[in-house]
Design a protein that fits this description.
Structural class: mainly alpha
Order of helices and strands: HHHH
Strand content: under 5%
Radius of gyration: 12 Å
Number of helices: 4
Helix content: 40-55%
Largest sheet: none
Length: about 80
Amino acid sequence: MSAEKMCPKIESCAIFNTPLGGDVIIKSYRNQFCYNGHGGQNNCKRFLVAELVGNAPLSLLPNSRLSVDDIIFNMRVNGEI
């Protein structure tokens, strides 16, 4: 895997570092978002939220149906930021 294809947030990402690493769904997320360069990052809600506020909720999936604005609003309401 080339370094430019890997998400720069891999080391701190809960999806990438989950103990469920062998799970087929987690592997699919990693291939679609973590190892897919800018295209993956630009579609990953975890990446987009973390870029704006510094972190992403542990429960947030990369393909969340919520908008980034809604996720950040919910984080504010829940005292996460």
